[in-house]
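Risk register update: the risk of archive-format incompatibility is retired. Evidence:
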Amino acid sequence: MDAIYNINKIHSDLTNNFQEVKIEEKSNAKLGKYFEIVTLNEGLAVKMIVTLKDLESPNIKWSYFSNPLNENSDLVERTSSVYTLSGDVQDVISKKRFSDEYLTEINK
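Archived output:
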């Protein structure tokens, strides 16, 4: 699949389902080019990373920070289709799949 189509589809789905969505293209030596995607809903943020290479497939491997306020926190890996990623992000939020440290910091 086409990475441009996939990132646009993901952006559209996330924008339709979450209060706030921010997508920023970045790069570093370890990951190469990647997208940092932050969604905010119900007072909880999901900060995820999707590499450009992973966006070329219909099944997208992505990771999110267990504590989105701390980029040194653990990364939790997930795999979603381009069509189910938004629902999987909602699952992370609704089931509060974050570190205890993050949930304590935001009082949830």
